[in-house]
Amino acid sequence: MIRDAIAAGKAHPRYLQLSETLRSAILSGELSPSEQFPTESDLCKTHGVSRFTVREALRRLEVEGLIARRRGSGTVVRPAAARGGTLHQPLSNVGEILQYAKDTSIVFTAEGEARLPRKIAEEVDVPTNEKWVCFRGIRARDGDPRPIAVTDAYVHGRLRDVALAIDLSQSTLFRQLEQAGNVRIGRITQDIAAVSASADISTLLRVPRRSACLRILRCYYDSEDRLFEISASHHPGDRFAYSMHIENDR
């Protein structure tokens, strides 16, 4: 099962493919704390990858808190209790955003056309008088009904017809905009902030009002560097952790 999953992925670097496959196996219970975790040599042989690829994949999972690597005793899957039930999710590139969407589910509703909230318009530095097509979604991890995010998404008015025809059963709006609107993503920016849950957000996330949340404000630009989608996601502080892999380039 694990081998089939990685063989099917072609779009991402091999270490990302392997980390995604192992992550899914851990979260599904296929790889559990009670079982022997494959050695680096086993992973190299099974998946036909280099030791460097294996080490990079394992390092990502360690940063996410899913595994522990101990010199002399190998790699072990950390128990769910040790992870505090928190989703440790890397969101550093488009491939990982898509993996996040794959490992979770979201239910969107269309909120009609409106101007951007003034605070978001000021943060993104766009005119406050433009019309955007608005959506709101509640995201949950598969197998866990508790929400891990409330996402407000806004699609620029020049893509109005495409936005209004979006299939709300699909979780990635930007991919549908790419395909139906002939839009090519040029870059994505992210701003991450610790905020307090408003009355509205706290009700939807099922957390106390003013409790700690992680807000990710993401802006999608096309190949001509025109902003076409904005999303603002609020995550409960005790159910979501953002992780990033940083290389030492010195």
Short recap of the structure:
The chain has helices spanning 2-8, 14-28, 40-47, 51-63, 94-103, 118-124, 160-164, 173-181, 199-205; strands spanning 67-70, 74-77, 87-90, 104-115, 131-141, 147-156, 185-196, 212-222, 227-236, 240-243.
Characterise this structure:
The chain is an alpha+beta fold. It folds into two domains: 2-83, Winged helix-like DNA-binding domain superfamily/Winged helix DNA-binding domain (Arc Repressor Mutant, subunit A); 87-243, Chorismate lyase-like (Chorismate lyase, 3-Layer(aba) Sandwich). It has nine helices and ten strands. It has helices at 2-8, 14-28, 40-47, 51-63, 94-103, 118-124, 160-164, 173-181, 199-205; strands at 67-70, 74-77, 87-90, 104-115, 131-141, 147-156, 185-196, 212-222, 227-236, 240-243. A six-stranded antiparallel beta sheet has the order 4-5-6-9-8-7. A two-stranded antiparallel sheet has the order 1-2. Strand 1 (67-70) and strand 2 (74-77) form a beta hairpin. Helix 2 packs across helix 4 (51-63) and helix 3 (40-47) packs across helix 4 (51-63). It holds the Pfam family UTRA. InterPro entries: Bact_HTH_transcr_reg, Chorismate_lyase_/UTRA_dom_sf, Tscrpt_reg_HTH_GntR, UTRA, WH-like_DNA-bd_sf, WH_DNA-bd_sf. This is GntR family transcriptional regulator. Residues 12-80 form the HTH gntR-type domain. Keywords: DNA-binding, Transcription, Transcription regulation.
